[in-house]
Amino acid sequence: MNRIMFSILSVLDKAGIPLGSGDIASRLGRQGTDLSERTIRYYLKRLDEGGFTVTDGKKGRRITAAGRQELKQGYVSDRVGFIINKINNLSFLSDFGPDNIRGKVILNVTLVPEEKLEEAIGVLGIVLRSPYSMSNRAILARAGEQLGTVEVPEGMVAVGTMCSITLNGMFLKRGIPIATKLGGLVEVVSGRPVQFVSVISYEGSSVPPLEILIKSRMTDVLGAMEEGSGLILGSYREIPENSVADARDVLARMALHGFGGIVLFGSAGESLLGIPATDGKVGLVVLGGLNVNAALEEAGVAAGSQAMATLVDYPVLSSIDVLERTHLPGRPQVPLFITKYFARAREDNDDGYWSVLRALKQMTF
Predict the structure, then answer these.
(1) Rounded to an integer, what distance in angstroms lies between the CA atom of residue 89 and that of residue 365?
(2) Residue 161: closest CA among 262, 287, 27, 312
(3) Where do the domains of the chain lie?
């Protein structure tokens, strides 16, 4: 099975309903894969012959049990490099940036059972207001609705938050080449990132590395936020040495529009959080993106997360203040760690915890 057939199966599996070749082409296009309907019909015929799809009358094709099993097992050799290609495609399609603040952004998506939505928003309120998130905005979609290309199943609410790969798109539009190298766990001690303790290469992975770490329950984002120490998610990227000034300028301009997170810059020829830079390149460590999803998983309110799930226009996202007013009427009971976190933030407001984290954005390690 080649990568195109695997992509078609993935689209049918996510849809959960029969789709025609036109619908499949449209959904693949939104993911960065441009195929004609004729090409898709050819591959659908091959999938039918293999028993991976079946015709459902005029409604189109649907995936079979054998097709779902193929997705689970797959041929790993066919999927190696799939993630780095997806990053490149989404970076190209994302056009959010200093000159287009209404453009498309990449979302990570977490499914939350409806009965746990209030608690989930409580967790969102903490993480989205912290420097461990790329933005203080999110979007919710109810059962039966669609969030980009993601259809929300019955009994669930989809929570979409900013993916840090959106940063790649902003840099590329500014003419700054950026390579996403590694994803891993970053040890935080007293509010300061110290080192990577575990890393996975994007180029050699068939699934998003940070998604693997979340599903393996290896993170401690809530611990890092509550006590100042823990294990958070970070990704290591590289840009040319002579692009650092432009990169810093992009980040400074985007901070005015709610795009943030902690982005650490290394120095030429030196390692950053234990990762050595390639000759002529400078390392970047981005601490944001999937930390929101990891916190939801740690709090026990998530039913699964997907990295780099879809693209949406930035204006459809709402600030956490709006989401809280809309979905948390009154003063609901909140978890103890949230209460303790707010108390600490108030206590250290001037020169403590928050100031240290804000300062990290401008540090060169």
Answers:
(1) 30
(2) 312
(3) 3-79, 80-365
CATH of 80-365, one of 3.50.50.60, 3.30.70.1360, 3.20.20.30, 3.40.50.720: 3.30.70.1360
DSSP conformation class of 322: H
Helix or strand holding residue 42 (H, E): helix 37-49
Q: What is the pLDDT of residues 63-87, one digit of tens each?
A: 998 898 888 776 555 566 678 888 9
pLDDT of residue 329: 66
- Written as one letter, the residue type at 250 is V
The reply to whether domains 3-79 and 80-365 share a CATH topology is no
- CB atoms under 10 Å from CB of 36, counted, come to 10
Helix H or strand E segment including 207: none
Q: How far apart are CA 40 and CA 33, in angstroms?
A: 11
DSSP string, 178-223: -EEEEEEEEEEETTEEEEEEEEEESTT-SS-HHHHHHHTT---HHH
pTM of the model: 0.72
358's enclosing H/E stretch is helix 353-360
| Mean per-residue pLDDT over the chain, rounded | 85
Q: Are 134 and 164 in contact (CB under 8 A)?
A: yes
245-253, long-range: CB within 8 Å, 24+ apart, which pairs? 246/174, 246/175, 246/176, 247/171, 247/176, 247/284, 250/97, 250/98, 250/170, 250/171, 250/174, 250/176, 251/361, 253/98
pLDDT per residue over 79-127, tens digit each?
666 788 889 999 999 999 999 999 999 999 999 999 999 999 999 999 9
The yes or no reply on domain 3-79 and CATH 2.60.40.1930 is no
| Identity of residue 191 | G
Provide the percentage of residues in the chain whose pLDDT is more than 70: 87
Instruction: Tell me the two tokens of residue 9.
Output: 């199966």
User: Residue 145 is encoded by which pair of tokens?
Assistant: 């609705």
Task: Find tokens 């049918």 and name the residue.
Answer: 12
| pLDDT of 313 above 90 | yes
- Residue 202 CA neighbour count, 13 Å, CB half: 19
